[in-house]
Amino acid sequence: MARVTIQVLGSGDAFGSGGRLQTCFLLSAGDERVLVDCGATALVAMRRFGVAPDAIDAVFLSHLHGDHFGGLPFLLLEAQFISRRERPLTIAGPPGTRERLQATLEALYPGSSGTSWRFPLGFVELRPLERQRLGGVTVTAHPVEHPSGAPAYALQLACDGRRIAYSGDTAWTEQLIEVARDSDLLIVECYAFEPKASHHLDFRTLSRRRAELATRRVLLTHMGAEMLSRLDGIDWETAEDGLLIEL
After folding, report:
1. pLDDT lower than 50: segments of the chain
2. Beta bridge partners of 32
3. Domain boundary assignment for the chain
4. Interior angle at CA 69, CA 59 and CA 83, nearest 5
5. How far does CA 247 lie from the centroid of its chain?
6. Is CB count within 10 Å lower at the N or C end of the chain?
7. What b/e sequence results for 52-74 when a residue is b if at least 16 CB atoms lie within 10 Å of its CB, and e otherwise?
């Protein structure tokens, strides 16, 4: 059985609270490397923590907000012009991912959406509640509550006998109970301490519902300024940029 690790490449919110980088996680198992979300600072994080961009096999996206997928244009252009990538890259995300990426490329770098990529670039549409296998990773997307112009998902990822659950961004939904079930690790957003941020989770709600989340380990992430100011007073495990977890 291969060693499975998760490295936090970004644990912050959309607003740079606490100086943290935007959401991005690196899942590694054997020779396989996949990103789970790819916020706008993902390439900065990869340089900072010594992750080679051309070693990434696939990117799994929970939803299409900029702090979760906005790093893709930079990742692709780096692959084209700096790494001169030749290996295939697969991007798996909600319906509309290809079109949103094309529009973002064009907005940021006019003309780039028509690039003839020097490497095979593939897109996979994640379909709700359907197990889909990409390389050595099996992913199941669960619809959650987070308006983003396309479906938003929590993701179940299975790889080399390990199960990782990831909430994406969402208000509390019963789907999280199923997503977390029997997982080795639940990475769950906790934007606020009190329940006042619409379409996001908060610490009070997670504390109240913790017994329903049948996971072996919980890691809080995507914390805003209010939540970060309270960390000294809680006993939950919290993400920080660069954290490495072995499963």
Report:
1. none
2. 29
3. 4-246
4. 55
5. 17
6. N
7. ebbebbbbbbbbbbebbbbbbbb
Residues 6+ apart with CB under 8 A from 232: none
The pLDDT of residue 197 = 81
CA-CA-CA-CA torsion sign (189, 22, 240, 2): positive
Q: Identify the CATH number of the domain defined by range 4-246.
A: 3.60.15.10
Rounded CA separation 204/24 (Å): 24
DSSP-assigned letter for residue 234: -
Q: Is 18 left (phi over 0), alpha (psi -120 to 50) or beta?
A: left
In tens, the pLDDT along 227-237 reads 999 999 999 99
Q: Which residues pair with 137 in a beta bridge?
A: 134
Contact yes or no for 91/121 (Cβ under 8 A)? yes
Please, are residues 121 and 112 in contact by the beta-carbon 8 Å criterion?
A: no
Span between the terminal Cα atoms of the chain, in Å: 11
Per-residue pLDDT at 155:
98
> How many angstroms separate the Cα of 70 from the Cα of each of 55, 104, 118, 192, 204?
19, 8, 21, 22, 29
**How far, in Å, CA of 63 to CA of 60, rounded?**
9
Using alpha carbons, list the distances in angstroms from residue 50 to 55, 73, 139, 196.
Answer: 11, 20, 26, 37
Identify the pLDDT of residue 1.
65
